[in-house]
Amino acid sequence: MKKISVAKLDALEDRQPQYGLVANIDLVIVRFDDTVSVFYGRCLHRGALMSDGFVDDNDNLICGVHNWDYKLSTGVSEYNNSEVLEKFTTWVEDGDVLVDEDEIADWARDNPQPFNRDAYLGLYADTSHGTPEEPLNGLIQQYARDGLSKTGHHGQVASMGVPRDQVPGWDDIQLLTAQLHRPPLLDED
Q1: In this structure, are residues 84 and 61 in contact, taking their beta carbons and an 8 Å threshold?
Q2: 144 CB-contact burial (10 Å; exposed 0-12 / middle 13-18 / buried 19+)
Q3: What is the CATH number assigned to the segment(s) 3-110?
Q4: Could you tell me the pTM of the whole model?
């Protein structure tokens, strides 16, 4: 066990998330009353920094991006109990908040991190590539990273140089089966 200080107890404001970094793992440190919790510092949803979040009235640590919640005492999501933010062993000695660097390093080996702190967006990279509800996240991130240098001055285009948002979608060209049959007749015909 290798104890390492991540914060001074007196410097931690009550229920105000604080950022920490140990063994190349982002941490969030939260003091609530006389207790201190140290969690994996990334939201399980999209990888946002939990230290940029806040604590609500129910003592949930809330992600500042999409409001995902984790109990300060356990790291378990109140909304979805199967989602658990990893909680690391914590001590307070001589005014220092300590964690076990070996414990965090072991966790890091089992959970490799995709964040490149030296790259554009570094700590704030969105590790997901969008969901079906958010199909253009990757494109937006590419524009933020490269501008139009890799797509041309018109931005992304589709078939025959037509801007993507003007190309007919599947819903525009889909034929309904009834349209292939002869037109319906009135009852008296």
Answers
A1: no
A2: exposed
A3: 2.102.10.10
A4: 0.68
> What separation in angstroms does the CA of 1 have from each of 4, 8, 23, 89, 103?
10, 20, 14, 11, 8
- Neighbouring CB atoms inside 10 A of 137's CB total 15
Residue ranges covered by each domain of the chain? 3-110
DSSP string, 98-146: EEEHHHHHHHHHHS-----TTSTTGGG---S---TT-TTHHHHHHHHHH
131-188 per-position pLDDT tens digit: 565 666 677 777 777 888 877 776 666 666 666 667 666 666 665 555 566 666 777 7
- Give the DSSP letter of residue 17: -
- H/E stretch holding 26: strand 25-32
Task: Name the 3-class secondary structure at 150.
Answer: coil
